[in-house]
Amino acid sequence: MTGPSFYSDVRIPIMKRKTLLDITLKIFTAFLLISIPLTILAQSKKDRQKAKKLVDQAEAAFAQKNYRQAADLYGQAIVIVPNSPNIHYRKGYAHFNLKENDQAISEFTTALSQGFKPPIDIYRVRAFIYYDQKNWDGALDDVKKGLEIAPNDLQFLKGLGEIDIARNDLPGALEAFKRAAAIAPKDPDISYNMARVYSSLGDVTAQGTAAEAALADGTRFPGEAHYLLGDAYQKQKNPAGAIDEYQKAINSKPDIYQAYRNLTEVYRGENRYDDAIKVSNQALLVFPGDGNINTDLSWYYSLADRPAEAVQAANKAIAALPNEYTAYTNLCRAYNETKEYVKAITACNAALKLRPGDGETYFYLGRAYNLTGRTSEATQYYGLAVKGLIEFTKANPDYSDGWYLLGNAYFADNQRDKAVDAYRQCLALSPKFTKARYNLGIIYTRKKNKAGAMEQYSALMPLDLKLANALKAEIDKM
């Protein structure tokens, strides 16, 4: 949850910071040290004096942060003067500091029923407790009551936005933060929260604008704001901006998990496989043995023509995620690359048990059979690969790797025209995907389209000289 002075933590994916508790402690500790007359009905002078003495002792204990003693002394005073909203309030706040939330709520509720003034003070702290307990309805009710008393209270408006996020009421959260921004337009953490909401709503332009404003105004959460700005740049096809912001996010806050994975994907799209590998290994220092990162790493090693390391990374992924099919699929591909075809077939079959019908796995399985001379089985699996990858690209039309794999499957299944279309779609999404360019060039040589092949050769020259020269050798054979 977000909010610079209200409620709980923002998580992208995990972060800790000061919340309303810090502010509330300062405000209400000072408040408690002010002597407030006790509300006492029909009590003897002796009882009044005894209760006042206990309250004075409780306030002294509270000032020394001895909240247990303070709560006990307030409790003794309540036995003598049960109808005193101020004492119930004070006792509730002592329990609040002790993280005894149920007792705190009970005392605050009693104080309100006895006419505590001003009630907004209780709404503020009780809303925090309800939020901490994930009682969104209770928190929302108290915040709304607070806003009825003080419609422009910035703290309550921020809290309303956070509660609405927790309730998945994103339009409501955005409205609350906009109201807060109208009061404090330069508040960086309101901008940061709005960036988060815009991200969830899919408004990439507004997400980037809000994240930029948060950073410009000095948000206390620069790592998270850089992440959100990097995410906006990535979605806007601005790889240079995305790389810069993701790097800043990681440097500012090294435990933003998704920043690493997003950054490696941007590097992959830029044909910077060594950089993707470097960042993945950097991530593993923060998240040791993570299965998803090792799965990504296996793919990057394969793209970088480092198959032995791809095998190692895939095995580590399987150790962490034994029921995740993609780890086995990556292992199957890597074993094909190391020419360990029997192991490849075993790994692919393990993946298909976990994810029947997966097109990528069928492609690698078909390739393993093809490379061992079992062409009839290979043809069968290539056909299944095409079917599965068509479904995958329909579900993930903006993922370049899916189109690359579909191109490979069409090529292997001898559907060259469709392979050309798939590779072109891949390159429209990821123009620097060198292996897709090389494969497309090879198809053009098979189709005797020298101009098309030369176009891919020219595009490869500044990206991957080795692949460019390999393609040129095939062109020269035409």
Question: Summed up, what is this model?
Answer:
The chain is mainly α. The chain has 26 helices and no strands.
Structure overview:
With 478 residues, the protein is mainly alpha-helical. It has a domain at 1-155: Serine Threonine Protein Phosphatase 5, Tetratricopeptide repeat. The chain has helices at 20-32, 45-63, 67-80, 85-97, 101-113, 119-132, 136-149, 154-166, 170-183, 188-201, 204-216, 222-235, 239-252, 257-269, 273-286, 291-303, 307-320, 325-337, 341-354, 359-371, 375-395, 400-412, 416-429, 434-446, 450-460, 465-476. The longest helix has 21 residues, at 375-395. Residues 1-36 and 38-42 have low confidence and may be disordered.
List the keywords.
mainly alpha; 75% helix; 478 residues; 0% strand; single chain; Serine Threonine Protein Phosphatase 5, Tetratricopeptide repeat
